[in-house]
Amino acid sequence: MFSRVILYGRAHRSNPAVMETLTNICSLLKNMNIEVVSETDTLAFFPTLPVQLLERSEMGKPGDLIIVVGGDGSMLSAARLAIKVNVPVVGVNRGRLGFLTDISPNDLQGQLNALFQNKFVEEQRFLLSARIFENNNIYFEGDALNDVVLMQGDEPHLINFDLFINDEFVCSHRADGLIIATPTGSTAYALSAGGPILEPSLNAIVIVPMMSHRLNSRPIVISGNDKISLHINEMNEHRPRVSCDGHARQLVKPGQTISVHKNAQQLRLLHPKAHNYYEILRKKLGWEHR
Q1: Is 287 a member of any domain?
Q2: Whole-model pTM?
């Protein structure tokens, strides 16, 4: 099924175990006669990793698989690469929560053996595409597996903006910002801001106001096929920011528009056969057991 593995990881001072796990995976896969390579950024973080460099232009061949080692943040970053080359992704958890990286580093050999014996579940997760524009000029484009967030810029001031869905006016907001999240991202920032949890297979988007100045501002769930527009009011004295998965952040000028819609390319996410979404919620969110 899979004949070449592309390792993906990011270094963090407080988490040296990532390098240890990457090295263990290299050893296990080479014993299984699986070709192991890595991409430019991973080798920049881990220059002693015993693998060859694979340029991104050479990824996407039949039999390719990306193994991500780290936390959900590493998976979010890898997702933007994976959708461009249409390569499935599986995650080994070396982070804190691990909603997306659900292979345990304590059972690498067993989990990898099962993976290469086709004992896995593949699901599709969609990403959001965001754009900042004014008239016919585009100033920013980005993709997000979790969320696109309108937030305060350098000054802690409320943001005045109008929300449109499919070019129809919904309401005006005066708030710290707005979170636009996928079902995948509904358990991340949107959950902290009071949004609902969406089951990952739903074709839906959740919109969550952040610290609204109006008591009647509430989260709403809309179709995943809807197109969202945020018009930044020209009366704003300060420039807010837009972020995609907390990575790319771009200042927005008053008068500009932010558009958000579903990306046509989907992430192919692999899980062990025993994967159970609700069991993960119980563990990660501390829900009660019977």
Answers
A1: no
A2: 0.93
Could you read off the pLDDT of 115-135 as tens digits, one per residue? 999 899 999 999 999 999 998
Alpha carbon separation from 149 to 2, 181, 194, 210 (Å, rounded): 36, 8, 14, 10
CATH number for position 83: 3.40.50.10330
| Residue 226: active-site member | no
| Residue 62, in any domain of the structure | yes
Tell the burial category of 44 from Cβ atoms under 10 Å away from its Cβ (0-12, 13-18, 19+).
Answer: exposed
Strand pairing class (35-38; 52-53): parallel
Over residues 201-223, the pLDDT tens digits come to: 999 999 999 988 888 889 999 99
Number of domains making up the chain: 2
Separation of alpha carbons 186 and 193, rounded Å: 10
* Candidates 41, 64, 72, 107; catalytic one: 72
Provide the residue range defining the domain that includes 50: 4-118
* Same domain (yes/no): 10, 77: yes
